[in-house]
Amino acid sequence: MTSSLISTDVDLNKKAVVLLSGGLDSTTVLAIARAAKYKIYALSFCYGQRHDIELEKAKEIAKHFAVAEHAIINIDLRRIGGSALTAEIAVPKERSLTEMEKTIPVTYVPARNTIFLSFALAWAEVLNASDIFIGVNALDYSGYPDCRPEYIAAFEKLANLATGAGVENRLSFHIHTPLINLSKAEIIKQGLELGVDYSLTHSCYDPNEMGLACGCCDSCQLRLKGFQEAKATDPIKYQ
Question: How confident is the model at residue 4 (pLDDT cuts 50, 70, 90)?
Fold first, then answer.
């Protein structure tokens, strides 16, 4: 990673809450926010997901980027279920890109981004930070409804209507989605230009006990396709 990403050269008056899953997209967004000299407050969630590998990666990434603070919040979405990531439902494998685009997949976690953004908004208000970054993507996104531009626009409007800081005009909240209109290959290229070390990231929905990615789930396939189209080598190990 380039020194600019892990230096202390930040604007102390420019704070941002960055949602950090430990995945490729959120790590790229963190790099973008750091390059823009934000003082970063990274936010991750232990929400009952199938594995804790991504959280361990998020901790490594937050440390690597020397963020101001990394908060991990516990939410029991497994109690609600309804997703292959939070219930005993098989993760789809070997689906074609056409299949991925047809319907909302079973790996969709009901209202997850709304829940995550709500926590990010609360923390941003306490921090007196008007900027929130999230790595949603409307192209290679496996059909998730809470990754679309219209959803983000609606949440941003809500953020300014539903907070004391917004109503009193002390803050004007903005949800930054720098990856929303990029392909996975374009995201990877931008990250590599910023010096992102993608070996620190994890994308797989269904890794084995050693933490190795399956290479067959939707997330793995989109990641592999992205690296291939970016003409770059994916540095993580697969089963």
Answer: very low
DSSP output for the chain:
--HHHHSS---TT-EEEEE--SSHHHHHHHHHHHHTT-EEEEEEEE-S-S-SHHHHHHHHHHHHTT-SEEEEEE--GGGT--STTTSS-PPPBS--HHHHHHS--TT--TTHHHHHHHHHHHHHHHHT--EEE----SSSSTT-GGGSHHHHHHHHHHHHHSSHHHHTTS---EEE-TTTT--HHHHHHHHHHTT--GGG----SS--TT--B-S-BHHHHHHHHHHHHTT----S-B-
Instruction: Decide if 118 is inside a domain.
Output: yes
Q: Tens digit of pLDDT for each residue in 69-110?
A: 999 999 999 999 999 999 999 999 988 877 877 788 899 999
Supply the range of the domain harboring residue 180. Answer: 3-229
In a domain, 7, yes or no: yes
- Within a domain: residue 110? yes
What is the domain-level CATH number for residue 93? Answer: 3.40.50.620
What gap in Å lies between CA 66 and CA 59, rounded to an integer?
11
> What is the C-alpha separation between 194 and 64, in angstroms, rounded?
14
Residue 67 covered by a domain: yes
